Amino acid sequence: MTKGITIEEAKKQMHEKVLRAMREVGFELEAQVKLVTPVDTGALRRSITNKTEDKGDIIETEVGSYGIEYAYIVDQRVPYLESTVDSNLEQIRRKIREVLSND
User: Fold this and answer.
1) What is the pLDDT along the chain (103 residues), one digit of tens a residue?
2) Which among 59, 38, 57, 58 is positioned nearest to 48, based on CA atoms?
3) If exposure means fewest CB atoms within 10 Å of the residue's CB, which of 8, 18, 87, 99 is most exposed?
4) Could you count the other beta carbons within 10 Å of the beta carbon of residue 102?
5) Are 61 and 74 in contact (CB under 8 A)?
6) The pTM is what?
7) In a domain, 23, yes or no
8) Any idea what DSSP says for residue 3?
9) Contact indicator for 35, 75 with CB cutoff of 8 Å
10) Which residues contact 16 (CB under 8 A, 6 or more apart)?
11) Local structure of 56: helix, strand or coil
12) Helix, strand, or coil here: 88?
């Protein structure tokens, strides 16, 4: 943090850093999920995207397929979303630490 700023300014700076980190995590996870998504026609892979929402005190990032029907049973056999997040948890933590530590 920069010296000589108010608590509110510091809070705003930290919030912006977290928002940036979550957006970066979303794009990285989207790319990783697409690599392991089962492909038949390619529609599922093309539909995968990410979105980050700033809800004030909460920042949420989602990665998934939107606007396409997908058989739940296939996801049980090839859990491409959950397994990708699980296998990238340390990378996610590292990215957040990296962004938060940069001034």
Assistant:
1) 457 899 999 999 999 999 999 999 999 999 999 998 888 888 889 999 999 999 999 999 999 888 787 666 666 666 778 888 889 899 889 988 998 887 6
2) 38
3) 8
4) 9
5) no
6) 0.80
7) yes
8) T
9) no
10) none
11) coil
12) coil
Say how many domains are in the chain: 1
Q: Does residue 55 belong to any structural domain of this protein?
A: yes
In 59-84, which positions are buried (b, 16+ CB within 10 angstroms) versus exposed (e)? bebebebeeeeeeeeeeeeeebbeeb
Q: How many CB atoms lie within 10 A of CB 55?
A: 7
On whether residue 102 sits in a domain, the answer given is no
In a domain, 17, yes or no: yes
pLDDT at 72: 64
Assigned token pair, 36: 């392991």
Rounded to 10 deg, the angle between the 89-101 and 80-87 helix axes is: 50
Q: Which of 74, 94, 91, 93 is nearest to 31 (CA)?
A: 91
Q: Nearest Cα to 59, choosing from 90, 100, 101, 2?
A: 100
